[in-house]
Amino acid sequence: MAVGFSGSNGGITRNYEVISTANLKDSRFCQKSSIPMEVSYFINNTCNLKCSHCYVGYNDFNNTLSVQAWKSVFDELIAHGARTFGNVGKEPLLNWKETKVLLQYLKAKRKEKPELRLGLVTNGILLDKLKITELEDILPDYIDISLDGNRDLHDWIRGVGSYDKLMNNLFLLSESEILKKIFISFTLNKLNVLSIADVVKTVYNLGIKNILISPYVTLNTYDRLHIANEEIIKEIQKLLDGQLIDFKEYEGMNIYIKNDFSTTRDLMEEMASRNIINKNELLIDDYGVIFNKYSFNNNNIYFNYLPWDTSYIQAIRISMMDM
Ligand SMILES: C[S@@+](CC[C@H](N)C(=O)[O-])C[C@H]1O[C@@H](n2cnc3c(N)ncnc32)[C@H](O)[C@@H]1O
Ligand code: SF4
Fold first, then answer.
1. Is the CB of 180 under 6 A from ligand 2?
2. Under CATH, which architecture does the 16-318 domain have?
3. From its phi and psi, is residue 289 left (phi > 0), alpha (psi between -120 and 50) or beta?
4. What is the pLDDT of residues 163-174, one digit of tens each?
């Protein structure tokens, strides 16, 4: 999951082990974890929505790479050890032809190197039965789909009618074999912070069992959506104390609380200082994700922890390039 910019990255892998805090201070360990393992690429710089919370608020119809150029970039990155490729925007389904070809390319590469992971992050609005069939054939390791609360909240952020369109498409997906690859991407802000339980219930009822919760990031603390760390921690503590969700009503649900070193480090360290993130019980998965895991009645809550900044080394992002 969430070591950098690329959304869920497919969550935590099944294989993981205990990591000692001594390792985190070992520069050789840090170096070993510094290959560009995680690549977030922008297939386009355009979007069909204009969300009020969006940090990529530009639209640029130029400066996109050709499919051929992307393939060369991927080849080079794979040769350097990259293992996760996330098509993170701006909106992959808007350039479905190119997105599909590149996902198919990465799928072929995955046949040669089974450790490769490929995925995409989308608002889900342009999904349809044909694209779902094509996605079933590609079988991405993860498909992150954004949902920002109930109809009112989601539509306030993403535009009127977007909730109903999304729900219709999530229903189509609920009948598909790729359902288990779906991660709901829930960006937590001041307006929807009390909706965690509702969102979990809504997606669970559709058969979706993965939710990635990421705090809204803004530089403007007067922004209406800005949420204080204290408020986030309060809700997360309620979640852990069983006050938000009755986990007896769920089975196999995975909730990922996403931390990012460059944008939400203070929140992450605050959670560590309150022992929500327990640095003495950290685990590490096959892809170098360091995390804590809580389990309740066969449901899991994960917190990733980043001891150092992974940007540009472990996690890189490619957008707005011209060749
Ligand atoms: C930039 S979007 C690109 C993919 C796609 N267009 C979508 O909305 O899912 C990727 C994710 O970033 C989230 N996001 C957008 N602006 C954000 C912000 N300011 N802080 C945190 N997450 C944000 C979106 O909600 C979405 O889940
Ligand atoms: S759909 Fe995604 S990229 Fe488009 S405006 Fe919304 S958050 Fe930004």
1. no
2. Alpha-Beta Barrel (3.20)
3. beta
4. 999 999 999 999
